[in-house]
């Protein structure tokens, strides 16, 4: 295999597999993935994944960067499109061919982006769903839209992603809101207003999935979600759920682990207030094609901050 990163794109076509093309499209759509994320989505053996990523880097199809880890060592490699990868994707989608300088600037800006962790966390939800579908018959991620793609499609909202998840004969669409703990939870809950506006305009009544930094943050969010919020359905999850709770454990079929939790209908609690229960899968919320489905609702703001 040629190792020159300055070779012509056409000369490396014989070395590009269908799986490589799938990876190039993923990175074109979602900008960056770690070695572990690529492994879980596309490969069985981690070592095979590492070797192939190195080959694609040598061909100039991929580029990579990583940072020092606090306390010593290095973070995992972060993979993105290299110059030849940008050229290939531009040709595939009939876009203007980027210059070498443009390709390098794209990688540099991405690596220095202060929202890089937010992007990786948002991608992680979809990576988990993709990996889950690989190991469970009848489960599949039918759609994965990035923030820019979702914003372009739905305009009013600024979701961090949008997906369609199927398990068996059930399918549910959802909007993703990723929370890395950098803003007050009251402001996070306020994002539901735009989704309510989308529904009032006749838009799709998809649930909003809040992907939070941990269980403690998740519990705080549910204390803020009280009563009705113009019919907006809410599901929650976090990346640190134990395997047995995330729905990704072996033998658990057709369960979208990262979206395991969902806010159920409020029920009376002490003092006459409402309490939100969270024991349903994302797929049980609603059928995306049904405007009259029995969707759970949550989320009236009360002006509190965490």
Outline: globular
Q: Based on DSSP secondary structure assignment, what is the total number of beta strands?
A: 11
Average pLDDT over all residues: 79
Total domain units: 2
Q: Helicity level, as a percent range?
A: 25-40%
Ends apart, CA distance between termini: 55 Å
Content of β-strand: 15-25%
The strand line-up of the biggest sheet is 4-5-6-7-8-9
SSE order, as H and E? HEHHEEHHHEHEEHHEHEHEEE
How many distinct helices? 11
Structural class: alpha+beta
Poorly predicted spans = 242-281, 283-306
How would a crystallographer describe the biggest sheet? 6 strands, mixed
Task: Name its key features.
alpha+beta, Arc Repressor Mutant, subunit A, 306 residues, 3-stranded antiparallel sheet, 2 domains
How does this model look, in words?
This protein is α+β, with helices and mostly antiparallel strands and about 300 residues long. The protein folds into 2 domains: about 10-115, Arc Repressor Mutant, subunit A, CATH 1.10.10; about 115-285. Helices cover about 35% and strands about 15% of the residues. The chain has helices spanning about 20-30, 35-40, 45-60, 85-90, 100-110, 115-135, 145-155, 185-190, 190-200, 215-225, 245, and strands spanning about 35, 60-65, 80, 140-145, 160-165, 170-180, 210, 235, 260, 265-270, 275. The strands form 3 sheets. The protein has a 6-stranded mixed β-sheet with strand order 4-5-6-7-8-9. Strands 1-3-2 form a 3-stranded antiparallel β-sheet. Strands 10-11 form a two-stranded antiparallel sheet. β10 and β11 form a beta hairpin. Residues about 240-280 and about 285-305 have low confidence and may be disordered.
């Amino acid at each position: 295999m040629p190792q020159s990163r300055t070779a012509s794109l056409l000369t490396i076509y014989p070395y590009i597999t269908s799986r490589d093309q799938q990876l190039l499209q993923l990175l074109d759509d979602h900008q960056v993935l770690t070695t572990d994320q690529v492994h879980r989505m596309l490969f069985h053996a981690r070592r095979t994944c590492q070797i192939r990523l190195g080959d694609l880097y040598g061909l100039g199809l991929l580029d990579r960067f990583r940072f020092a880890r606090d306390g010593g060592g290095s973070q995992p490699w972060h993979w993105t499109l290299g110059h030849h990868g940008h050229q290939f994707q531009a040709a595939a989608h009939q876009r203007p061919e980027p210059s070498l300088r443009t390709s390098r600037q794209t990688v540099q800006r991405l690596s220095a982006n202060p929202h890089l962790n937010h992007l990786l966390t948002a991608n992680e939800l979809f990576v988990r769903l993709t990996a889950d579908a690989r190991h469970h018959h009848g489960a599949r991620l039918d759609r994965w839209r990035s923030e820019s793609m979702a914003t372009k499609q739905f305009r009013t909202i600024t979701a961090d992603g949008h997906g369609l998840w199927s398990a068996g004969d059930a399918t549910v669409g959802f909007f993703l809101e990723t929370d890395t703990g950098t803003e007050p939870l009251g402001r996070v809950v306020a994002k539901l207003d735009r989704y309510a506006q989308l529904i009032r305009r006749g838009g799709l009544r998809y649930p909003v999935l809040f992907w939070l930094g941990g269980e403690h943050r998740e519990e705080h969010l549910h204390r803020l979600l009280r009563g009705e919020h113009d019919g907006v359905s809410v599901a929650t999850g976090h990346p640190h759920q134990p395997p047995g709770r995330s729905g990704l454990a072996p033998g658990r079929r057709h369960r979208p682990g990262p979206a395991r939790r969902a806010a159920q209908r409020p029920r009376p609690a002490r003092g006459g207030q409402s309490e939100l229960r969270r024991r349903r899968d994302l797929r049980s919320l609603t059928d995306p094609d049904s405007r009259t489905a029995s969707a759970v609702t949550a989320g009236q703001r009360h002006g509190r901050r965490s």
